[in-house]
Amino acid sequence: MNNVRKAGLVIKPHAPSVESILKDLVGYFEGRGIACVLEDVAARKLGRPGGLQRADVAAASDLVVVLGGDGTLLSVAHHAAQAGVPVMGVNLGRLGFLTEIPVREATLTLDRFLAGDASLISPRWLLEAKTRGAASFCLNDVVVTKGAVARMIELAIGIDGKEVATLKADGLIISTPTGSTAYSLSAGGPILHPLVPAIVLTPICPHTLSFRPLAVPSTSTVGVRLLTGGEEVHLTLDGQRGGALVRDDTVEIRKAPFELHLVTSPRRNYYDLVKEKLGWAE
Is 70 a catalytic residue? Predict the structure, then answer.
């Protein structure tokens, strides 16, 4: 049996029916003697004091339940992974590759997880991106891309200290297998099963059409140096965090030293999920 004494609850505040679903889950946990750790916006919805900032919920919990879409889960995934706390996503959004559990299956999944069903845990490794001496972590992808009105940018790509290519493109996506069904897929990258030990490099609108997506071992260190000056260029992690890059800035990307324990559905496997979300059965 999993020893869960405190359950964190993170929400997408404007999702349909989120308040009633939140109340139901709080009742579920408290009825089992499990204290609820609410992020501040969730606490306000229930009229309770003492809500935490989203970034602090995982460290104060033994399990985090996300009510929302993949973006909501991505906002807490790196905090939960560093704290060693599993995350379960209940889908109140649209696509939901990460928040894969429908509302109607939430308590069934929690029953199985709390009873100690280890088969529900899908280990997902993260990327560490280091630039200017500062390290950040992400579950899906690291993206280097031009600004809205900028011209094509030029990037030098190295693998384990060896120069591999110079890319002229709108940008470059470096993704985990988990992130392979996100931005990378939209840019023509391959779908990788979460257990495949590879990092995917996917160019965005490359000038040279022969520059295709590349998968390298997950033990690799990928270096991306910006060769272009005088243009607006962004570094983005999981589509949510990041900053500006200037000429000769280098981003070093490698597998993070920890992983996320994602609680998955007891009623479908990864291939069922891909088939459902991408409409392969239609």
Answer: yes
Rounded Cα distance, 233 and 54, in Å: 28
Domain layout of the chain by residue ranges:
6-117+266-277, 126-256
Tens place of pLDDT per residue across the chain (282 aa):
689 999 999 999 999 899 999 999 999 999 999 999 999 999 999 999 989 999 999 999 999 999 999 999 999 999 999 999 999 999 997 778 999 999 999 999 999 999 999 999 999 999 999 999 899 999 999 999 998 776 899 999 999 999 999 999 999 999 999 999 999 999 999 999 999 999 999 999 999 888 999 999 999 999 999 999 888 999 999 999 999 999 999 999 999 999 999 999 999 899 999 998 888 866
Q: Quick one: fold of 126-256?
A: Tumour Suppressor Smad4 (2.60.200)
Contact criterion met (CB below 8 Å) for 198 and 220: no
Give, in words, the CATH class of 6-117+266-277: alpha beta
* Catalytic entry in 24, 56, 70, 111: 70
